[in-house]
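2024-03-11 09:14:02 DEBUG pipeline.ingest accepted 1 chain
2024-03-11 09:14:02 DEBUG pipeline.ingest length=113
2024-03-11 09:14:03 DEBUG pipeline.predict start
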Amino acid sequence: MSDSHNSADIKAHVKGYLFVFYALIVGTIVTVLASRLHIDSVALTVAIALAIACVKGFLVAGYFMHLISEKKMIYGILLATIFFFAGLMFLTVWSMNHDSLIHMNRESATYFK
């Protein structure tokens, strides 16, 4: 084997992957337990589910996709993706509001007359 792939280096990588594996198992258990909570607020339920999903997604993207050790360009692309995803989600939620301009008929709008 070459010097860059010595036994201690491989053991360190395996140890990191096992940590992420166990963390994802714990995250899945927490997700199941959180789904059994009876919370009256739908927004709080969604916020808890998204927080758990973000942590699990960070673990997968950071360790299995090696984003933890990448350069600034990868983080820039990731941030741009998050920005556009958030923008698309905002547009989707905004279009579901029945008071928005997209659902307004022409007779009720004063600026179309």
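2024-03-11 09:14:41 DEBUG pipeline.report Residues 34 and 48 are 8 Å apart (CA to CA).
2024-03-11 09:14:41 DEBUG pipeline.predict end
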